[in-house]
Structure formats: C-alpha cells, structure tokens
Design a protein that fits this description.
Layout (H helix, E strand, L loop, with lengths): L7 E3 L4 E4 L10 E4 L2 H9 L6 H19 L4 H16 L6 H17 L4 H31 L7 E4 L14 H10 L5 E5 L6 H12 L4 E4 L4 H6 L5 E4 L3 E3 L4 E4 L2 H10 L4 E4 L5 E2 L16 H4 E2 L2 E2 L12 E4 L6 E4 L2 E4 H5 L3 H8 L2
Parallel strand pairs: 4-5, 4-7, 5-6, 7-10, 8-11, 10-15
Antiparallel strand pairs: 1-2, 2-3, 8-9, 9-14, 12-13, 15-16
Bound molecules: 5-S-methyl-1-O-phosphono-5-thio-D-ribulose.
C-alpha cells in the first residue's frame, strides 16, 4: 500500500473497502464475501473509479469461488457463471471491470479441473496480484507524469483519479504525489464534479490528508481561471480509451478539454494500459452510463429541483483524441502525434501482458 489511503484491503477472509459515499465525513470500511455483494458495492458506488472497480471485481470472483467451494461441480460452475454476470452488469463504462473479469475467467478456465478449494486459493492469489500490479503501475505512471510538471505548476483535475479510485497511489493524483515526492512544489485545483462530487469530497480529501496544496472550485469556474492564466496544466484519469485515442471520463471532462485547447493549456490523461480498450474503434462505441435522476435533483436527502422536472444524468463523456496532449501510461508517455496517427494499438500490444 502506498500513500495514506488503503481503498481495498484483504483481511484473510473477505475484502474490505472504504465506503466512499460517506467521505469525507466518515472513514468506514465495509466487508464483502460474494460476487453479489461486490457487484452491489460497485453499482452503488461504495467503490468507484475504473482501476478500483477492476480490482474489486477480481476479488468478487475469487470470493465467489471461496464461498462455493465444497458444492457439487454443476452448482459450482453455474454459480460462478452468475457471479461473472452479476459483476459484469454492475457498471458499464469502466473497461477495467471487464479486463479484470476476463483475466479471472482465463485463470478459472485453466484450473477448472482442480479441487474447488485450490481453485479458490488460486483466484484469491490472482486478485492479490491484480491489486499489487495496479499500485506498481500507478507508481510508474506517477514518475512518467511527474516529468511533465515543473516546479510551481498549478494543475487542474476533474473527478477523483486518486488512491481511492485505484488500489493505491492513484493515476492523476499519483502524478501529483510523485511530483511532490520528487521535490516539486505543485498546487492542485479540484473541480467539484457534480453530481456525485468526487472532486469536492474525495480529491480534496486525499490532497488535504497529505498536505498537498489544493483549491476547490465549482465545475463552472475552470474556464474563467484558465482565461486568467491561473492553470498551467490539466491531468485527469479515464474509464476507457478507444483504439483511436478517444477518452471517456467523468462527465464534464470534455468541457475542460475544449477550454484547455482554447487556452493552449496541456491536457493530459493518466491511463494504465488496463484502461485501453482496443476492441472499441472510437469514442462513439463507448457505453455511457446513465445514473439515477436523484443525483441531479440534489445531493443525498436534499433535493432542490422541483418535482416533475425531467432529468438527464449521463455519468461520463468522451473527449476526442485530438484534444488530448498525451496519455501518461505505466510504460511511458504517448503523445498526441502517436495517438492521432493510429499507433496506440501498436504501443499497447508491445507492452500488454
Ligand atoms: O463514476 P466514477 O466515480 O466511478 O468515475 C470515476 C472517473 O471518472 C475517474 O476519473 C476514472 O475512473 C479514472 S480513476 C483512476
């Protein structure tokens, strides 16, 4: 574990996750021991953020095998299949979920003839590896990303691509952490990120925990600050990058990228290779989750919109590759030239395990 936040932790029997709905007011872990439980945690956003969702899903599969060990071969196979289904339909946009499930499925297919207890142990070991690899990837990404930042830079981020959105260190916030570790003084602007407020509640909390200077703004303020020369760079995370380099991320990211272009401010996307979906040609094919209307009507119990108003709540948007200055990955920086010349596939295939 790196940094001060342990988003997911294994207690020897089950997986514990910080209930991110309660932050920043309460730091409380919930414990899960089945695929259904983990799927509910993902759907209701106890856990969120693309890499964290992937790690959680891997544990969901492993815990399902542990729960079922000792049942008849038929029941085991049938129930494991429904475990994959329930996890695979928990949230649609972050490709890390499907990446992790595919990885678990491949292992399971290879060891299906072994005793169920052994299968469970091997799947748990695989989930531990996915968690560990995620932290390592974030650390490497952090070092590459930090090389793009100069001392004194003021950097805007949108949503939360922090330790809370990963197994640790974070992607965009991992770059900030690595920059600070290398002795650079940087300061962060956090967009509030309506409707679920991941910026105000989670990014601001993570930065305050580690005394990294952070200033909170509402989502409609970043254009003004850019026009005033108060923002030097933007770094965001992503939920899925298509083969042509189009980037899906939290709703509002596209607006920020357009403004960045208008003001010639670099717009970087921190992106582990597990978030690149080579099966999807471009951003139009990325499924965009629509979330409940209540999130837009107000926040929590407090509703400020009138009853009867119609509501849209797309949770993500797509930023075209042409607006992305570079992707920061654990294997290096992919600049815009590579991205728009269609060489992303080549890069990913070279490094992906
Ligand atoms: O709806 P969320 O909170 O799961 O959305 C999270 C984001 O959009 C993050 O920016 C993205 O998953 C990258 S996290 C490293």
């Amino acid at each position: 574990m790196t940094g001060s936040v342990e988003t997911l932790r294994w207690n020897g029997q089950s997986i514990e996750m910080i209930d991110q709905r309660l932050l920043p007011h309460q730091l409380q872990y919930r414990s899960y021991n089945s695929a259904q439980g983990v799927a509910d945690a993902i759907r209701t956003m106890v856990i969120r953020g693309a890499p964290a969702i992937g790690v959680a899903a891997a544990y969901g599969i492993a815990l399902e095998a542990k729960r079922l060990a000792g049942s008849s071969p038929d029941t085991f196979i049938k129930q494991m299949e429904s475990g994959f289904n329930v996890l695979g339909t928990s949230r649609p946009t972050a490709v890390n979920l499907f990446w992790a499930l595919n990885r678990m499925r491949k292992i399971l297919d290879n060891i299906i003839q072994l005793p169920q207890e052994t299968i469970a142990e091997m799947l748990i070991a695989q989930a531990h590896s996915i968690l560990k690899e995620d932290i390592e990837a974030n650390r490497r990404m952090g070092i590459f990303g930090a090389s793009l930042l100069r001392d004194g830079m003021r950097v805007l981020t949108h949503c939360n691509a922090g330790a809370l959105a990963t197994a640790g260190h974070g992607t965009a916030l991992g770059v900030f952490r690595s920059a600070v570790e290398s002795g650079k003084r940087i300061s962060v602007f956090a967009d509030e990120t309506r409707p679920v407020l991941q910026g105000a509640r989670l990014t601001a909390w993570e930065m305050v925990q580690e005394s990294i200077p952070v200033t909170l703004i509402t989502d409609n303020m970043s254009g003004h600050l850019m026009s005033q020369g108060e923002i030097d760079a933007i770094i965001v995370g992503t939920d899925r990058v298509a083969a042509n380099g189009d980037v899906a991320n939290k709703i509002g990211t596209y607006m920020v990228a357009v403004l960045a272009k208008r003001h010639s401010i670099p717009f970087y996307v921190a992106c582990p290779l597990s978030t690149i979906d080579l099966n999807i040609p471009d951003g139009k094919a990325i499924p965009i989750e629509e979330r409940p209307a209540n999130e837009v009507k107000g926040f929590g119990e407090l509703h400020w919109a009138p009853e009867g108003v119609s509501i849209r709540n797309p949770a993500f948007d797509v930023t075209p590759a042409e607006l992305v200055t570079a992707l920061i990955t654990e294997e290096g920086i992919i600049d815009n030239k590579i991205l728009i010349s269609g060489k992303l596939t080549e890069f990913v295939e070279k490094y992906r395990k």
